[in-house]
Amino acid sequence: MEKIKALEQIANQLEDELVICNIGFPSRELYHVKDSPTHFYMLGSMGMASSIGLGLAMAQEKKVVVFDGDGSVLMNLGSLVTIANQQPKNLILVVLDNECYGSTGSQCTYASTTDLKKVAESVGFQNTFLFTESEDKIDFTQVLKTEGPVFVHVKVKPGNANVPVIPLEPEEIKERFMGEVQRV
User: Fold this and answer.
1) Cβ within 8 Å of residue 16, ≥6 positions away
2) What is the mean pLDDT of the chain?
3) What is the mean pLDDT of residues 52-61?
4) C-alpha pair distances (Å), 126 with each of 40, 62, 77, 89, 111
5) Where is 152: in which H helix or E strand?
6) For the residues 74-101, what does the mean pLDDT come to?
7) What pLDDT shows up at residue 21?
8) What pLDDT does residue 71 have?
9) How far apart are CA 59 and CA 52, in angstroms?
């Protein structure tokens, strides 16, 4: 499955959850398939989406979904340990694993030799899910019903969709997202 298709299928099953999306192409693709003021599109800070999502989940009760990449998670493995130890019941971490740094030139990551789901389980994630590259449909229903923290490993094909950059300034993204968080 292509990353944009995985994002579209999952996003279309979300309602009013707060969403943090990894830098670069994942943010552009999510904006393209389903924009929402409840989505915070990261435009920098590679490796920090999971940490930002954790802070947001700990600060309020609404469900938080983080879309992250294998490269970013590998860059900040400490966030997995911290999430597992903090145990936020309202956090879902979705790792879109294409085995490369898709936003910086598609250099290979070590996700081809590292089972990220097993890594999450080994640091203390009690609830994990795997969707393989060969699956045509992602049913996110059970994930949304599961108490967090939840780790969702989604294997996707390498490559990025040909979508334009997000036509919002960083301040606009931040302000509209903060407005949604304050309504919680």
Assistant:
1) 38, 62
2) 91
3) 96
4) 26, 20, 17, 11, 21
5) strand 150-155
6) 92
7) 96
8) 86
9) 11
Domain count, the chain: 1
Residue 155 has pLDDT above 60, yes or no: yes
Domain that residue 14 falls in: 3-182
Q: Where are the alpha helices (DSSP H) in the chain?
A: 3-11, 25-33, 49-59, 70-75, 78-86, 116-123, 141-145, 170-182
What is the domain-level CATH number for residue 74?
A: 3.40.50.970
The pTM score is 0.94
User: Confidence class of residue 45 from pLDDT cuts 50, 70 and 90?
Assistant: confident
Question: Dihedral angle at the C-alpha atoms of 29, 70, 153, 157, nearest 10 degrees?
Answer: 60
Distance CA 5, CA 99 (A): 17
Structure tokens at 17: 């959850």
Do residues 94 and 144 touch, judged by C-beta distance below 8 A? Answer: no
Helix (H/G/I), strand (E/B), else coil: 18:
strand
